[in-house]
Amino acid sequence: MTSYTETSTAAGSGASATGRFQADKSPFAAVKDTPKDRVSTLAREVLDAVHATIRKHHVTYAEYNALKAWLIQAGEDGEWPLFLDVWVEHAVEEEATAHRSGSKGTIEGPYYVPNAPECGADATIPMRPDEPGTPLTWEGTVTSTGGSPLGGATLDVWHCDDQGLYSQFSEGQPEWNLRGTFTVGADGRFRIRTIKPQPYQIPTDGACGRLIDAAGWHAWRPAHVHVKASAPGHESLTAQLYFPGDEHNGDDVASAVKPELMLSPAVQPDGSLDVEYSFVLDPVG
Hints:
Number of strands: 12
Largest sheet: 6 strands, mixed
Order of helices and strands: HHHHHHEEEEEEHEEEEEE
Number of domains: 1
CATH topology: Protocatechuate 3,4-Dioxygenase, subunit A
CATH superfamily: Aromatic compound dioxygenase
Structural class: alpha/beta
CATH class: Mainly Beta
CATH architecture: Sandwich
Distance between the termini: 50 Å
Helix content: 25-40%
Shape: globular
């Protein structure tokens, strides 16, 4: 097996995540017509919650100044995407998708990159020759809530490698390593060959790491496969699929694990894994 050397730092990952967010999203355009009274309500209630915490716990000036220093460091490290996606996004996702009757989703996280290479309906995700890790074959279908197959639906799949590192957010991997777009057949079926990702710690050498250390928390995420499922006329679904037995399924630092997203891998005689997991998408409207 080939040996690969990879590295990841908070500053490097933070800069990549910030750059991707700024390039790929249009956050202000999406809310440009938000009424001023709603902006005022949201901002005021957040500030009121901060004020209430200060008064309840008698926050000192030393603690206040430590917070200011931490906020500055988080910005300098480019870690706001990491902080928000790890500790805040799960609540936004729950509210945004509460109306759906199809498959459950969860957070996107900070490591998504759009426009991954097209692979087809039955293919191997882009990976290095002799990619380290346990081979994993994932089969399933994409259907509408009415049961009809959604031919032409796309699955945008990405995950970390056997060292817990993501391509484009760490050094040492090809640009699109373990990232691919799969377009399902007319019958809605797909088959994806990849490797089982590993659990990993979010970067701890920057501002988020300092918070984790100061609070006595841990930085671990359980192993997971990311996917975005989409089809014309249907709501897009963002999910992460998890593996049973991972010690951090119950205390994921990002609070993103849901029972509906747990896989049931079958171990094959050669040690590889087969798994069946399908998606049901809600029609728009």
